[in-house]
Amino acid sequence: MTIPRFIAGAALLLASVSAQAFDFKSVGNTPAILYDAPSVRGGKLYIAPRGMPVEVVLSYGDWVKVRDMSGDMAWTEAKMLTPKRNVIVRVNGAKVRPTPDESGIALMTADKGVLLELADPTSNVWIKVRHRDGIIGFVKSSDIWGI
Fold it and tell me: What is the pTM of this model?
């Protein structure tokens, strides 16, 4: 009788974990210092530039543990992040198109590392983005990180 309860509990736990959405934010107007521990006395790992997208994996008081595009994890003060969503191009030659399909002529080609503002986070395969020069279009979700 204990085993079925355990299995039911484990199934419920797995379902709740898999149902969680990713929590992406961006570094605010000021570059953020990333630490190896949730304290300003921790070791400074690197400085994240403004606008850089990060995935929040854990909150601990005024601190958050974040993952960057390369998978590295570090701590930063929660106040350094903004809910404004940016994505970063992770392939060379990502095409931004006027419509969410391959048929449209590319409005622009973005190189790896280019920062784009997320214009509509509800899309799946094609993501609506805005470039800082004002170009708005769609890019394949597989070509960007931060969604």
Answer: 0.80
